[in-house]
Q: What sequence folds into this?
């Protein structure tokens, strides 16, 4: 099976590989795995608590080319977005962008899961219950 | 002890027209060969789905049926019988290969019962919602990730011509640990076989869930053991 040029590009020049300080309250960490193939993916975000914008995103993935490309692309996409905007990214968007074949769709699912897990972790740390926050602002 | 399935769909034999169940390779009345039966791999051997199998009896039955189905025996038979002897033999071989190997047997039975496991899982576009994200425990993921980091570090150091004895030691320790975890998973799987074989519908359902989780865990562990072994041996 041939990888698309975009997958090969992300694989050879992965964007945003690295690590953020897991202990920081500004940082959310998502560690997810795909038991189908044994891949593991860690995606981290640093969020500006004022603006809710994801200012930095880093990833580290142990897996196949498609898993690395999916997570690399995911960090590119979420950088500069607000947390809520980032949650709108769907695995099918990644599939389309990277022209992933059916057998590699689970890699994109993993990337979407990683985004959600990272944002979930950040929310938990900052006890963001969006509704409660909104209510607090309103009062 | 081979148990014959009694809840089979009756079909009429092409030769003697007497009805028999759809799981048999030979007509119980006129002994003529039948087209590939519609049941599962267990029923090919006249067995009910089970996880603890008598492997000696299975092998014995495999050889007996192989001889009976052998295409040489049908060299002068009708064309449809010649075709069926090939098709039935292929089915028998697939069934035997799957059932004799414990992990393949377990995966086969779980898939038969509707579980999503192995490479089929989560590959459908619409399959995402069905996936249970909590299937892999977080602490196992942490461990897998950490060990992968160590492996990468060791490979990089090797490339630069360095050998870090500390890293070597910690990898060897990790390998021993993951070997132990792997054999624990296998033990747990075996005890769930027993539970499933002897349980009622509700008990079986719980055992199935546990076995799917154990197989997922096993896949991670065996990948890790393979990678660590490769890195240590490089």
A:
């Amino acid at each position: 099976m041939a990888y698309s040029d975009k997958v090969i590009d992300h694989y050879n020049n992965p964007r945003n590989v690295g690590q953020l300080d897991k202990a920081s309250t500004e940082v959310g960490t998502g560690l997810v795995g795909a038991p189908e193939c044994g891949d593991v993916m860690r995606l981290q975000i640093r969020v500006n608590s004022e603006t809710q914008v994801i200012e930095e995103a880093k990833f580290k993935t142990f897996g196949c080319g498609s898993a690395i490309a999916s997570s690399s692309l995911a960090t590119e996409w979420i950088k500069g977005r607000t947390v809520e905007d980032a949650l709108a990214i769907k695995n099918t968007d990644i599939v389309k962008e990277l022209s992933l074949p059916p057998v590699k769709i689970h890699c994109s699912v993993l990337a979407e899961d990683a985004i959600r897990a990272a944002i979930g972790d950040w929310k938990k740390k900052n006890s963001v219950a969006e509704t409660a926050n909104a209510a607090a602002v309103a009062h | 002890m081979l148990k014959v399935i009694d809840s089979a769909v009756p079909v009429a034999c092409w030769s003697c027209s007497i009805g028999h169940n759809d799981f048999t390779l030979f007509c119980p009345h006129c002994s003529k060969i039948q087209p590939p039966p519609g049941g599962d791999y267990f029923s090919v051997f006249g067995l009910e789905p089970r996880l603890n199998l008598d492997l000696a009896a299975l092998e014995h039955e495999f050889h007996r049926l192989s001889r009976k189905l052998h295409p040489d025996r049908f060299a002068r038979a009708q064309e449809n019988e010649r075709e069926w002897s090939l098709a039935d033999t292929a089915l028998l071989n697939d069934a035997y290969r799957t059932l004799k190997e414990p992990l393949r047997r377990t995966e086969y039975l779980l898939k038969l019962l509707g579980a999503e496991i192995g490479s089929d899982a989560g590959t459908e576009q619409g399959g995402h919602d069905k996936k249970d994200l909590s299937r892999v425990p977080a602490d196992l993921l942490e461990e897998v990730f950490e060990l992968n980091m160590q492996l990468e570090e060791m490979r990089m150091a090797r490339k630069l011509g360095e050998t870090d004895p500390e890293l070597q030691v910690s990898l060897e320790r990790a390998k021993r640990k993951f070997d132990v975890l792997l054999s624990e998973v296998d033990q747990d799987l075996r005890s769930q076989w027993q539970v499933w074989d002897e349980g009622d519908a509700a008990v079986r359902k719980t055992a199935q869930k546990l076995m799917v989780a154990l197989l997922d865990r096993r896949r991670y562990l065996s990948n890790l053991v393979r990678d660590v072994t490769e890195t240590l041996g490089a």
In short: Residues 5-125 of chain A form a domain with the Sufe protein. Chain: A fold (CATH 3.90.1010.10). Chain A touches chain B at residues 31-38, 40, 42, 60, 62, 91-92, 95, 102-103, 105-106, 109, 112-113 (CB under 8 Å).
